[in-house]
Amino acid sequence: MLMALQQRIDLLRQTNATLESIAQALFKSWFIDFDPVRAKAEGREPEGMDAATAALFPAEFEESIRGALPRGWRVGSILEVASLLSGGTPKTDNPAFWGGGIPWASAKDVSQCRDSVLVETERTISQAGLERSSTRIIPALASVIVARGATTGRMVMFADAMAMNQTCYALISKGDVPCALNLLLRNEVSGLVNAAHGSVFDTITTTTFSNSQCVLPPATLLERFESLVRPLVDRQISSVRSAQALASIRDTLLPRLISGKLRLPEAQAMMESTT
Strands 61-64 and 123-125: what pairing? Predict the structure, then answer.
């Protein structure tokens, strides 16, 4: 029974890996390799898209500081397409600020997340903790990156609105294309880390983001990409929630089965009622 439970968890994680690979492959084809532009420049129809989508791509390139780019695309700071938010930490010696209903993400939550989306946090805070500290609510689907410490550059997407601490930055899409922004940031994160500075650990600052030089496609194209990828991300989030729920059931059942406090038929019934 527990083996079947683990197999369901593994299948969900495999499905998530496939969904993430599809989104990354599409991003690479459109915005890194420029496959549709190359096809049109050679007089071919771009593969795997309808005529309306193909019409959003130019048919020629022009030079830029990032090399040859599709005509009409530009290079600029990532802050041209995203708003930057920081976080904070309620006073740890005040128990009234902790253990409430608001998820609070730390650098540990981000860096140790095994998925590309974060659905739960180790600690939570109260409404009083939110109101009486510098932390704030970060909206769902924000891209969150560890800004300093040994895990600088690790990043996730928030599945839900939640607070976070000051060791992270959140980037919120200005054009309602959070999934496109997330993949854009993932493509640029190594450059951001290389541009970071610090005496002991690398530190990403607001200047790091403002000085970034990213390839910025037209908004209409990002919106079209978002419409294709958002359903994949929604499925990822759903799968992560299901996998974590099943893992919680597994971890709860195993010691009770071993100790004899729970019989196999009862455990089977519990599993079926929640899956």
Answer: unpaired
* Whole-number Å distance between alpha carbons of 7 and 143: 30
* Rounded Cα–Cα distance for residues 178 and 211 (Å): 21
Helix (H) or strand (E) holding 180: helix 178-195
Token readout for 233 is: 């991300």
Pairing of strands 155-158, 143-146: antiparallel
The token pair at 87 is 């976080």
H/E stretch holding 129: helix 127-131
Quickly count: other Cβ atoms within 10 Å of residue 231's Cβ.
Answer: 11
How many other β-carbons are positioned within 10 Å of the β-carbon of residue 43? 7
**Number of other CB atoms surrounding residue 59 within 10 Å:** 15
Q: In sequence order, what are the beta bridge partners of 214? A: 76
Q: What angle do CA 78, 107, 8 make, to 5 degrees?
A: 100
Beta bridge partners of 163: 104
Strands 74-76 and 214-216: antiparallel
pLDDT digits (tens, 9 = 90+) for 18-65: 999 999 999 999 999 999 999 999 999 999 999 999 999 999 999 999
Question: 192 is written with which tokens?
Answer: 């951001």
pLDDT digits (tens, 9 = 90+) for 190-239: 888 888 766 456 789 999 999 999 999 999 999 999 999 999 999 999 99
Helix, strand, coil content of the chain in percent (nearest 5):
50, 20, 30
Q: Which of 36, 32, 69, 33 is nearest to 50 (CA)?
A: 36
Cα separations (Å) of 74 from 65, 66, 94?
9, 9, 49
Tell me the angle at which helices 178-195 and 219-259 cross, rounded to the nearest 10 degrees. 90
Report helix, strand or coil for 232. Answer: helix
